[in-house]
Design brief:
Blueprint (H helix, E strand, L loop, with lengths): L1 H14 L6 E2 L9 E9 L6 E7 L1 E3 L2 E5 L10 H8 L2 E6 L3 E9 L2 H14 L2 H8 L6 E6 L2
Amino acid sequence: MKYGAKGNVALFRLTRGRIGGMWRISAGWRHPVPILLLEHVGRKSGKRFVTPLVYLADGERLIVVASQGGLAEHPQWFHNLQASPDAWVTLKRVGRRRVRARVADAAEKAELWPRMVALYADFETYQGWTDRDIPIVVLEPRS
C-alpha cells in the first residue's frame, strides 16, 4: 500500500493529475473517484509527507475519510493533522492550496457519511471491518 501511494503521488505530480488523479480500484473500478494529494507534517519527525486520498468537493471544503482500508488504527496522516491541522492539498487542474483540517462533528458526519459512501462504496465495507469509528475530516481553505 505504501509503495502504491508513492507511485500514485509521483504520477500525479508528473502529469498534474492526468494520471493518478482518479482512483480506479475496487469500488472505483466502474466509477472512478477523484484523488487529492494531502501534504502534512509528521507529528514526531517534523518531516513533510504526501498522501493520496479520495475526496468529495463540498463547496470550498474538501471531505476525506480516515478509513485506512478498515484497519484497527487511524492512519498516520490523521494523527499528523490532529497535531498540526494546517496542511496543503494538490488537486487535478486546480493546483496546490492551503487548508486547515478538522474532524467532522457527529451531525456533520451523519450528513457526510452517506455522501462519501455514495462516492466510494468501499468506505461502508471498511467500517464493517473495524470496531473504530472511522472519522471524516473536513479540509477548509485558509489564506
